[in-house]
């Protein structure tokens, strides 16, 4: 029985590492997701900057077309000016020309301001795009690091699994079945030391008769609370 417990302790050493490594491996996709989040966010910022620029360009185009039409109408009115018969008609038409010209110069001012706005928006888009490219580079580096870490963990897992395989034939099947059932249920820890008269897994205080049984090593003794197999570890025991 003492040998059996010793074998289980060795197995637990391997399984504990396997459990930690598999857990770390399972975290990797989430790590990658977190690394990708800023890139995604910046992609949206670039898109917005692009949309703002396009809207400004479109508004500018509309103003330019509007100005052309108004300038054409001024020319038309000016040519008609010589065909009018009365002074009254003449001054009415002249007023219309003057008012259209005033509107046009306001429009020209707006177009000039539009150029400034487009220039600013173009610069903003370039800046956001540059930031996006930079973040993409960071993500690529993070991805490479995560891939490398994952590969390293997978290699360690494979080595430990091989070691485990070698150990298994020596463990009595019945004890192994008990151990593996608890291992699956208890987060990769099936075997725990007695620590200060309490279970090293769940910290529940152990009755003296249970501690005695663990001490005798006559049989596998489990914690009544968490079902883990108990043993005495000289380093941790209070005895
Ligand atoms: Zn326990």
Account of the protein in words:
There is one protein chain. Helix content is 76%, strand content 4%. It is mainly alpha-helical. The chain has a three-stranded mixed beta sheet. Helix 1 runs antiparallel to helix 2. Zinc ion (ZN) binds next to loops.
In short:
The protein is mostly helical and 239 residues long.
Question: Which features does this protein show?
Answer:
binds zinc ion; 2 domains; Helix Hairpins; 3-stranded mixed β-sheet; 3 strands; single chain; 4 helices; mainly alpha; 239 residues
Main structural class = mainly alpha
Largest sheet: 3 strands, mixed
Give the number of domains. Answer: 2
Number of strands: 3
Note poorly predicted spans: none
- The CATH level-2 architecture of the largest domain is identified as Orthogonal Bundle
Count of individual helical segments: 4
- On the 0 to 100 scale, the average pLDDT is 94
Strand order across the largest sheet: 2-1-3
**CATH fold category name of the largest domain:** Helix Hairpins
Order of helices and strands: HHHEEHE
**CATH class identity of the largest domain:** Mainly Alpha
Overall shape: it is: rod-shaped
* SS strand fraction: under 5%
